[in-house]
Predict the structure.
Amino acid sequence: MGPLTTAPRPVAGDIATQRLLPRESPLPMAPGDLGKSRVPDRVPAAAGHAMAWRRGLILLATAALTGAGGYEMYRVLEVGGVTVLEATVLALFLVLLAWVSFSFASALAGFFVLLAHRPDTATGAELPAVSSRTAMLLPTYNEDPHRLTARLRAIIESLEATTHGELFDWYVLSDSTDPDIWVAEEKALLALRQAVGTSRLYYRHRADNTARKAGNIAEWITRFGAVYDFMIVLDADSLMSGQTIVRLVHAIETNPTAGLVQTLPMVVNARSLFSRVQQFAGRLYGPMIAAGVAWWHGSEGNYWGHNAIIRVKAFAEAAALPQLRGRKPFGGHILSHDFVEAALMRRAGWGIYMLPMLGGSYEEVPPSLLDFAARDRRWCQGNLQHLAVVPARGLHWVSRLHFLVGIGAYLTAPLWLLFLLLGMLISLQARFVRPEYFPKGFSLFPTWPAQDPVLAIWVFVATMGLLLMPKLLSLVLVWMRRSERREFGGPFRTSAGVFAEILVSALMAPVMMIFQSIAVVEILAGRDAGWQTQRRDDGTVERRELYRKYGIPTLCGVAMAASAYAVSLPLLLWMSPVIVGLLFAVPIGALTAKPSPGKLFATPEDREPPLVLRRANELSAAAGAGIRPALVALREDPELLAFHVAQLPSPRAARPDTVDANLAVARARADASETFEEAAAHLSSREVFSMLNDGSSLSTVLQKP
């Protein structure tokens, strides 16, 4: 093989020769078990009593709205007797209306909570004192290392500026399977450690990423968790200010019954029209919705998997996940592990809380509807897995409700579709099937089939009101507060943004209904979602992909339009809010995936970016280096090679399912006329990955022939 050179031996004392991990401090995790009984509660009983009437109010409001709407719908359908199809439509309507009413009641509670809350004007207030040791955990899987470390550096610098930085250690926990990204992560972490000047930044790569992110966190706890009081789990797109982190630690320190405290991450860095609409909606409506659920959740809150602080001891004792019985997609490791971890900790007596008004917590959103649907497919499978967790012993009833709400978030999509299809079927039946004017038995007068169109319109308007009212109430809150009006660009621009968001969301909603219905059917048919890397750049989609992915929604729109028109033009107009979004799925998908630099959907973070966000974006823009092939990068950087070898675990017996690294070496060295880069390009990703896990094979392939 061409110019292969032997890498220099590392110099004694060089940082690259040291394992970038602290001394292990094992903390055993209790075996995952869904059959345990509930333990005595750590949360004061008075808090439980205070929550009882709040929850009763939410459930009573839900029942009242559902009952009233169901009765009116029955009046629409009962003229001339209720047929089997009409009874099915009524049953579906009751289920869907209960879902909408429940969300409305919770949002309405949030409106009154924020109405009574006086915004905190003391943004520069002195930070509270904290004394506990906290680990900052950043699990990653095939993410861009340069953007990853840019965000991490911004968080580290923000926390160091608080003077509490010495209480925090930082861990990048890699599950990356792409060998080029793995080596790029190591290089980026070495550069980051040098840039921030701290020895408390650690890196660990798992060659066997069992149980995905949940297994990644569990493995860290069993190796290093014993020396830490708390851990804050980040996502690859997470961003948190140092002040928020310190306040989170103080919140859980001062509440010894708390096992987890969740923040409300705000979406930032949106560029495409789709992501900007999501960012605007989350920023404007999210605080009110979160305030509502926090008001009645109390100590039985939920966990969203990131940007939350967790008591390490409580997590180790209670939150180990079992492996579900059966085959994928319902069996195996739990995908939506965060809900289950929160429920298991609550079962063990620990409180799960949310601080919706804390601020300083950020995340990003997929750039296009297709990327969102791909992530949603994985979440759908994880939530449907919770069907096996709902009957677990000892769970708090609110925890079971969280599971049911998560399951319902996806099952309602096919239910809405079925509701629409049955409604059209009833219309088609009325149009083409001759009615029976004289029922069985003796009757002097015919029974004229008739429906009350005015009442039907009122039922529709009331249902839409429940869906849209939370958005309008959020707008009212902005109108009432001068600082928020200014941050959103004034009342007129904010109002225009709300109505534009409603329009764009209404066009995309039918497409998501089809995507989620397909996802549910695929999962029920036994198709696993897998584990794909989420795209975080622009949302540009190739034309062929647009036609392929949006083909089914478009065909559904054509079928619905033809069926509605076959009945009557008024029915087509009545169904147009759904049909238009489906018929134009391709152009809507293409348009919403394009960059949207306008100010219509601007948020306060767009107008006045917080320091940590501004710093993260500056560092991301400066990190322009691409990702080089792993073997080439190691060959050209002796320090990186020495560091990589130092991170490898002790040699172990080769597993039968791994690629033979020696055979890969032989293949790479087969043609002596090739350059190193050309020879390395012959190797598959699996072969390179196997070499990177084998120090001796790696040394061999980097030697002269």
The CA atoms of residues 210 and 216 lie 8 Å apart.
